[in-house]
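Why does residue order matter? Because the sequence determines the fold. Keep that principle in mind as you read this record.
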Amino acid sequence: MVQTLDKIQTKNQNEVRLYSVEPLYYEKTLLIIGVMHGDEWQGEPLIEKMMKYSPKKNRLLFIPCLNPDGKELKTRQNANQVDLNRNFPTKNWILSEKNDYYGGQSPASEEETKFVIKIIETYPPSAILTIHNPYKIVNFDGPAQKIAKKFSHLSNYPLQEDIGYPTPGSFGTYCGAERKIPTITLELPDDEDIEKLWQENKKAFEYFMEL
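Structure:
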């Protein structure tokens, strides 16, 4: 059964919700996040499909849409024009120019960022999956190479450890590199419909949910 564990209201009066699906007894907690960037909406319908899954041994936590304001505005950033994936309080966070990758006036300045940090502290996950686009790769941070290799094999998406450009204040650095939580970033292609994306990644999603 899907339960709502927590929620916040955004600047534009949208809700960000944390859902839980869990067996009576569970071994691990796994966190799955979609739509960190508002113009990368494909993660939400895929996570909604995952929420119908009945896990055998793990508690599954889902945030289908972390950035509903950005989704509504069709922008990468949230309503404050902050890129949430540059807003985490990492050692390499910087005060950047106000462009598409603007990381905010200070680390964790955004309510959406604070919400994720609170979740990670309240329900410590054994591994995390985030869904982005458009590169069609499997990327990872922290001690996640083994998981990423298997995920890549099942999805048939190339494995790429380095995304190829600096990402100060990123979620992957915050969780994977600095907190040593295995963190997988699935980058979807832009030009495929949801059902095709689901079929391509279904086995990989099921593998992750039963780690």
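The chain has one domain: 3-209.
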